[in-house]
Amino acid sequence: MAAAVVIAQALQCYKGIMDETEIRRLSVGHVLCGLAVLFSLCVPPLLLDEFSLLGTHLTWLCICSVCVVTVNVLLRLTLKPNPSTKRSSFAHKVNKLKQSGLYFFVSCLLFHGIIVLYGAPLIESIWETFLFAVLLSSFTTSRCLCILGPNFHAWIRVFSKDGAMSVWDHSLQITTICSIVGAWLGAFPIPLDWDRPWQVWPISCSLGATFGYVVGLLLAPFWIYWNRKRLTYKSR
Amino acid sequence: MKRLLLMLLLAWLSISFYSGIWLFMSGFLLMRIELGNQSQCSSPPSAAPHLQDARCWFPQRFDKAVIVIIDALKYDFAKYNPENDNPKPYENKLGEIHRLCSAQPRHARLYPFRADPPTTTMQRIKGFTTGSLPTFVDLGSNFASYAIQEDNLIHQMVSNGKRVVFMGDDTWDGLFPKKFYKSYFFPSFNVKDLHTVDDGILQHLYPTVDGGDWDVIIAHFLGVDHCGHKHGPDHPETAKKLMQMNQVIASLIEHLDDKTLLVVAGDHGMTDTGDHGGDSEKEVTAALFLYSKAPLFAEQLKTEAPAVPQVNLVPSLSLLLGLPIPYSNLGGVIDDLFGWPEDKVSALLSKTTAYHINVQQVARYLDSYSRAAGDLPAEKLRALADLFTSLTSEYEQLMSQRDQLSEEELEIHLQRILQRQQSYLDQARHVCMESWARFHPMHMLMGCIILLTSCFFCYIIAEAGSVLSLPYKNLLGYPLLFTISVTSALGLAVWTSGLALDLVTVCAAATLIFQISFYFNFQAKKSSPSRRQTHPVYLLLSGPCVVLLFRCCSLFSDSYVVAEGSVAPFLLTSLLTVTVVKLHWDGKLLLPTFTPLGSESLKPSLTPAYRRDGSRLMWLLAALGICVRLSGFFHNCREETPDCQPSSFLSPLSSIRDPDIKNVSYVFCVVFLGFMVFLVRKWLQHYGNLNIASPLVLYVRWGFPLIVLGIACYWAVSSGTEDSLAKLKELTHLALVACPRAIYAMAGLGLLLILWNPITVFMKSRVSDPDNTVTTYRGAPSSEAELQHVIPQIYRKMQRTLKSRLQHGGEGEDGKKGVSVEAYGLGSVYSAAMVITLSILTLVLILLHSERMTPAFLLLLLEAVIILHIHGHVTNLYSEGVELFSVPWYSVLAWSLAATQNFYSTGHQPVFPAIHWNSAFVGFQEGHTNNIVPALLVAANTFSANILFSAGSCLLLLWPFLCEAPTGRRRKGKKEKEGGTEDEETPMMEMRIREDPDRFSVALLQLGTKYLFIQGVQLLSCVCAAMILRRHLMVWKIFAPKFLFEALGFAVSSLFLLLGIALVLRVDCAVSNWFRNLTLQQNR
């Protein structure tokens, strides 16, 4: 009897350690993601002439999306958030990669459509809208792709109340929701008559989304750490 | 009885909202009636026998005048204090005025110029041209433009042959269209632009003055005002601007001659932040500077000049320029200007004569005004009239015995008359000001409080409605008795104490007393059942709450009110998306197989199966987004958004030049109209409500196409009127009148039919079915002819049996003797009546709009159906048949947001010039004899979205029953029936309502209060915005019209909400009767 209790305690302890290391890995990943955004803000002015966040916003949108996607892919390769047990063939991997690209593209189009339905201009500044959609996709879809893979059912699972099964899933939930809420809130200053340069479409929204994303990145590890007792992942 | 009480409770809530609105309006909306009368040179208000030399009312003193209006020229700006060593940026900058005043004291004088609130430029221009006190709503003959209808200075100048040249602010263009001999307008809209207007004026000012082709020049500079708005007065830019103005005055004087009067005036002041609009001392004290090269004043002034009310400029200028005083002037002449034969007695005589004319004119105006409107207090008017008669007789007596009196006596008499004349004018102005130009903060505050408490009651009734099951008779009865007694006692007490009994206050007191006593009765009844659980704080963060909060906050910002047409759809889409996402988050969209996780499986191998509802909801959301986005193409514009283009669909078809495009658009409009009617019929057919041969169904089958035909005819005739042949003139005219009237009549007929018999249920009993057996002539069919008779019968029978199996909403019951009755369309009997009513209303409203707005109405209906579907699915997914009776907040909010959005999508804006006045003449080409019919038509046109959505809000309660899944939860039996074992697979749909009539009426009450609450909260924030921001720059342009539209919209919405609920209750009555008859038949 006593032995059983000891074993249970040890298991608990082990689980705690597991979580702690996982959270640490997660934090590292998040810091890197945040650095990607910071990089896109700080480095281009040194390299490019006439670069400014507000003036050449389209360039920044491209750079930021590329940075974030690159870091996500690198993290996927190094940290391996959801390690799959079975080894897959090279062809399988290529197939997955192709599928991921397709998913990403479709999500960009979908985001574009949704943004237009929410009131963005249809024809004028179509590039701004599209690149904003790309930015949103790189904040949300690319992370989904890197953590869950091109598996739509898994996505559906993660974004429901009891669907998260690892710290990675939780961080995915938090960052995605934060980015989208940030973008949504970013729309609010647009009608005001302050005549500021950042009120131009889509600057406030993309800044809002970026801000939300960064806040989500910073918030997620703390939130998970805080609630680590409550979060028991049934699958592990 | 219960139904009546339900209606009474809702009506009471609406009435308490109305009284709040009324109270607020009485304190906030400054209202007055514009008179169309004009003063004429030939008919002075009184004959002045001794003024033979006057061509007009009074001898002309100046031939020409240059009037320089410097916007927001505060008195502090113009005042010069030589002892001030360290002047602020706005001080001591107009040195020229000071120099002139001290060097030529008899030629120049500076006055504080007191503006009347509201101190906005447009109201001020109206003020110092008409001499009246402009209010927010000047009820004139024409709302459609801002043009001044009243008699005014410019009109008098023009009609007396003066050439008026204007340069500057283009507000004047709107106010005096086509009045000016020459004009140079510059856009005033951009407050950030300091120089365009001023530089433009300066370009033209001196050449014009030197050119001599003018009698009056008006130059309106905007730089100082814009500077105040942009930087505030305490800024170097203001100093620069004032210095420029100083330069302007200095060089202008060099261009003037002896017969020219120079007037430099500010229209209002500004606060320390550079704003204006309110009634604070700093805003109302502007500056007035008068100068002429000929001596203007009799004596020089020792002290600072006394303040001059702004309206006083009007009579003074009129008389100096030899013009009649504008009819509605309330100002008194500035007496310094009339003391000019320099000897003392004749100066006094001249002054009294000027005053006499002035007094006569004011008295004439007050007389005409009090005949036209009753808003001036009667006893004060009487006192004024007494004073006036004594003054006139005294003056006339003095004039007749002028020669007999000695100089000193005459002087004393004249002095006395002068004082009394001045006091008469002051009192007259005061009386008018008290009723026209003053906010009543107490009234406004009380109005707000009543609105707030009404919202609160709506909320508690909506939340506690289920507790409130039985005894709400004494909830209404006792408070009513209590209120009547207390109010009458109070009224009596006030009356006996001799105070003036203000109707508004009494009404407010009555409402408040009623609410308080209601609250205590309510609490007493409520405390007996279990206490309501307290709501956790995080409820505030739920989707509907956040959206409602955003919506209310957005009404406080002028930019958001301007952009409301795109904010409302944004919030609507967000709200419904959040609802669906939350549904997914709660796992309601996944099939229950998902929940048990394999305990051993490491890999999440589960493939969550999605319900069909999931994808359906996604499609519905996308369709909603598309509808909302498309309806944005029908928006109108307001003048605050200069680069907005009003939708081309708003102009009537007859305005299109190209006949091909015209024809194509016409065909499209008719097709859309037909499609709409087709969809309605299809829907009714789908639910089996088109089978019976009752008058109502006949009406739907034949009346709807007839209405469509009528509308199509009307459009055809009205769009092609110009190019019709002369012979057909009579005919087209007849058609233009007859078609719309026939449609009104048809619609009225339809509504009456619905009220008379709203049941659209086709019933047949199965056993006694005469077609059950195939009748033949004799025995087996032998001949071809007999076969031809029999085969259709067999076919019909088979069809019927098939149909009875397939028919949705088929409802079968067994009687006692095993007789089953089939009733088609019973499951949607409530909604069918509602849908028919709404379609009739829609058709009439389409008729009132421009032809090409038809797609907007189609989108409106589609959007409503989509919202209902989303709501129905979500409710059915959340609840297992139990919760269907309570309508969740989000759907009510979405419904009201959709109403707001469609207000804009039907081509409206909450400003007066955007109202579609043409709609008043649909069916009444030759005009109206009274004001009620056109007001109703225009209101119906303006608030069509509110009408449709609030009348249809009952559908929110009914639709989840319709969407009920055909399989799954069923209830056996009914209250009326003992049997009912057959046909269990068919859903009960709206017949579930019959199971629980008490809960149904409570649910209707809750729905009504929820809708009222959401509308009321929006109204409340509009009211608060108007009250708090009443000094805001934009209050008269944005917030006040928005408040008016919101208040009227609320009134219309609540009225139609009540009518909609009444209709549902009528259907409920009819269904009860129907069941009673059925049981009687079965028992027989």
Automatic annotation (TrEMBL), chain A:
Keywords: Endoplasmic reticulum, GPI-anchor biosynthesis, Membrane, Transmembrane, Transmembrane helix. One of its GO terms (biological process) is GPI anchor biosynthetic process. The chain crosses the membrane at residues 26-46, 58-79, 100-120, 126-146, 167-188, 200-226. Its main location: endoplasmic reticulum. It is found in: Endoplasmic reticulum membrane. It comes from the Eukaryota. One of its GO terms (cellular component) is endoplasmic reticulum membrane. It is a multi-pass membrane protein. Pathway: Glycolipid biosynthesis; glycosylphosphatidylinositol-anchor biosynthesis. This is Phosphatidylinositol-glycan biosynthesis class F protein.
UniProtKB/TrEMBL annotation, chain B:
Residues 897-1048 form the GPI ethanolamine phosphate transferase 2 C-terminal domain. The keyword Transferase applies. Coiled coil: none annotated. One of its GO terms (cellular component) is endoplasmic reticulum membrane. GO terms for molecular function: mannose-ethanolamine phosphotransferase activity. GO terms for biological process: GPI anchor biosynthetic process. Pathway: Glycolipid biosynthesis; glycosylphosphatidylinositol-anchor biosynthesis. Keywords: Endoplasmic reticulum, Glycoprotein, GPI-anchor biosynthesis, Membrane, Transferase, Transmembrane, Transmembrane helix. Gene3D superfamilies: Alkaline Phosphatase, subunit A. The chain crosses the membrane at residues 442-462, 474-497, 503-524, 617-634, 664-684, 696-717, 733-756, 823-848, 854-872, 884-904, 943-962, 1011-1031, 1043-1065. Pfam families: Phosphodiest, PIGO_PIGG. The keyword Membrane applies. It is found in: Endoplasmic reticulum membrane. It is a multi-pass membrane protein. Belongs to the PIGG/PIGN/PIGO family. PIGO subfamily. PANTHER family: GPI ETHANOLAMINE PHOSPHATE TRANSFERASE 3 (PTHR23071:SF1), PHOSPHATIDYLINOSITOL GLYCAN (PTHR23071). This is GPI ethanolamine phosphate transferase 3, catalytic subunit. It comes from Engystomops pustulosus.
